[in-house]
Amino acid sequence: MIFNNRFLIIFLLPLYWATAFGFTEYLLKTCQQSGFCHRNKVYSQNILKTKNSYYSIDLSSINYEVEKSKSELNLFTANIIKTIPRPDVGDIKVVLPISISFLKDTNSVRLTIDEDRHPELDNSISEILNPYRYNETWKWAFDIDNKDILQGDKLSFYELKGSSNNVISLYNRDNSIKVEVYTNSFKIKVFYNDTLVFTVNDRLFMNLEHKRLKELNFQNINPEETPYNMFGDDFEYSKDDTLKFGPESVALDFTFNNMENVYGIPEHADSLKLKDTSNTEPYRLFNVDVFEYTIDSPMPMYGAIPFMIGTNKDTSAGIFWVNAADTWVDIAYEGSDTKTHWISETGIIDVVLFLGKSPSDLTKNYIKLTGKPQLPLLSSIGYHQCRWNYNDEPDVLNVDSEMDKYQFPFDFIWLDLEYTDDKKYFTWKPNSFPNPKRLLNKLARLGRQLVVLIDPHLKLNYFVSDSVVEDQGCVYNSEGDPFIGHCWPGNSIWIDTLNPIGQKLWDGFFKKFIGSIKNLHIWNDMNEPSIFSGPETTAPKDLIHYAGFEERSIHNIYGLSVHETTYDSLKEIKDGSGLRPFVLTRAFFAGSQRTAATWTGDNAANWDYLRISIPMCLTNNIVGMPFIGADVAGFSGDPEPELLVRWYQAGIWYPFFRGHAHIDTKRREPYLLDEPDRSIVREAIQLRYALLPMLYTSFFNAHRTGTPIMKPMFYDKTMYPELYAIDDQFYVGDSGLLVKPIVDKEATSVEMMFVPGIYYEYTNLSPLIINGIVPQSRNIDAPLDIIPMFIEGGHILTRRNKYRRSSKLMRHDPYTLVIAPDVYGNAFGDLYIDDGETFEFEKGEYLETNFSLNDGKVLKSTVLNEPQFDNVLGNTDIYEIKIATAAIKKTVKKTVTIISGSNKHEVPLHRSEDGNWVSIRYPKIKVDETWEITF
Ligand code: NOJ
Fold this sequence. Notes:
InterPro entries: DUF5110 (IPR033403), Gal_mutarotase_sf_dom (IPR011013), GH (IPR017853), Glyco_hydro_31_C (IPR048395), Glyco_hydro_31_N_dom (IPR025887), Glyco_hydro_31_TIM (IPR000322), Glyco_hydro_b (IPR013780). GO terms for molecular function: carbohydrate binding; Glc2Man9GlcNAc2 oligosaccharide glucosidase activity; glucan 1,3-alpha-glucosidase activity. Residues 1-22 form the signal peptide. Keywords: Endoplasmic reticulum, Glycoprotein, Glycosidase, Hydrolase, Signal. The protein is an alpha+beta fold. Among the domains are: 35-253 and 342-360, no CATH class; 814-934, Immunoglobulin-like. The chain is built from 14 helices and 50 strands. Helix 12 (641-651) runs parallel beside helix 13 (677-690). The longest helix is centred in the middle third of the chain and has 24 residues, at 551-574. The model is unreliable at 1-20 (pLDDT under 50). The structure holds 1-deoxynojirimycin (NOJ). 1-deoxynojirimycin is lined by residues 388, 416-417, 453, 525, 586, 601-602, 635, 660.
């Protein structure tokens, strides 16, 4: 059993009990304390001085696969030779196979570098371990159903030039990408439309620590290397790591040429624009449980998406480091370049470099490779009411009815840990939830859903864990015995969802647990995995997973494997009804967007966590995982009413909008607030619901093209350098809605940044004109009942105004269109509607309509797609069309003419008292019809 007294000390630390002290940082390694990070940092510092290069391509090994048959991948392959000069014993040469390919339709280059291992000659490796480097992270990260992309694009040709440092040039099909491979001193330059975008191994930091015997270690080290912790681990909490393979790290440096801004690589509680780490810790990607994490910090968190985006005004580039091991990333902004250094503990070098004109090109191509963000249940983008814990059935039903009594719309209610029988997942606490079906049926009456928590640790000695051990579907310790560690239930084992046996068992448990219930969904928490008795709050790195791979190699995809297996199982269960499952995961990796929503974990009820939640959500949104939110209004601690109000006003913009609270906190369901706070929060949640048509359209656009739902200012506007570092205001999808939530105590106004153009204050459509050619800030009034929000001129928003208790009950309500013309009198908007709950949209059962206003004169709808069946859309009537008039005053008349099919009629225009807008009521047209209105 891997768990000793030292671990007990950690376990006894009150990690989960609200403290005023924040995260206990000493539990986590610094780079200095992490053997492989330390070694690579030392290596890079020394190499900068010596400029020695130990890696070159063996020209005789080059193999260029000319199109032999259509189905064959077109790869450039060769061997890199790592040479360790040893005049005494003769140079040591290590063979590292490299491959380069262009991935189809994604404007990307893939580079892999492995190690040629010969297990048959090496009896130093334990029999229960897989002797090879783990090279299957891509199988989890990529959308492997999309076989097309993996086919690879054609390499058009290559040539060898010169003799001092031979260069091989590879071109993609349309010659927009050129890859120059320098062979003597290994280096790669990547050009996009003839502009140099990336230099790989620019600073010669490449380091692949090859397999060697401990006794021969010193023969295998270059002068720039340090042997620090190569075969052992000095860190207080991971001294037991057996490190059976010794040093195995992989590292490479990438320069973003002529780019001074990089983003991405969540999860960190830090700014949107990544910071220079020359004098700080590198950003670390290592899924860990970090209660009350430190903010403004590069420390690791629950999830890891190793995708970084760089941009300047007209070119963008992305690095996708496909590695699931513990990873550190250093960033240096140097002159007009950004220099990055990626270091992983093990695995192979597998990296995809994306090229494009704008960040949206990158996100779009990245999700082609890693999979589309799911289109979730419409109800799941409503409000979620959660707490650790609602105690029993009456408690749940009471919250349910109090929400209605005070007119707070909501769709999901949640049961945390304590609903189980003694923390045994797949069971219900008998006295508290004697009849779960009855509860679920009651909730279903208003279209509501229930989420319950199921974690991957399984309490010892009950039918679930017993069968997992018996059928060998669990995670094993380094000796090959079932690993037993500590989590909520005490001694537990962990399901191995990388293992087909584990997947099958997991699937079976869900089938039995959920049966025919339709409105029950799942929350996979603690799946980093969180292990109270483990080093760094997680799994010992020498645990063994499926196919003999160590935890060390697969760590960051474990959580993905858990939630994806859960999703697959729920999807199968729901297949009869065709309903979309909802799964929330705490740990995530690239690819998680296909099947789960996530949240920013255990924050605390203070203003700093509210502030940081915005850049955190923005970051996930630009790396293809938009369905994210933060616990409103802070997980631990009791928020003062002002903070709670402001947090709801911010939370309504999170793609995933959930109120949640720690078990030790006071009850804080929004109806418990006093007036006027209760009404202010009610108004905010009702606004979220009014905007569901627009938000759901944004989710569809995210699903289709990766468009962020919370979109950073710079994202579509890279021409304005003033926007590159803004991360406290954002656009909502493509809607043109620009929001700046208040995150400061006692604030009554706020500085907000606008690019030149016309804006309309959301509630009264009063205009704000920004002249000139550069972005400017304006002071915006924001007393407690105001959320600073504007519609950017040029957009058309769709909403449903009437309060209903849940999203489902809004299906029968008509729509309102809000037209916000730009200075030329033009505006555009799109609307997506489907049944909100099944996969029928994949067969074309949805409506997509475009609305456009031209020159302030003609407003028209164009139906791009409509469903075949009548019952898909609900009510499609338009109740009102509201038009902001500041930019089109001259063209507005007293009546308007509506042409719809062969129907033509005149309707009066209403004018607002303040003159900000005109409106057409009951125009007798629908959102799923083609019509034209002439002003
Ligand atoms: C940790 C999660 O982050 C938190 O949201 C949850 O309430 C607790 N686990 C208890 O399950």
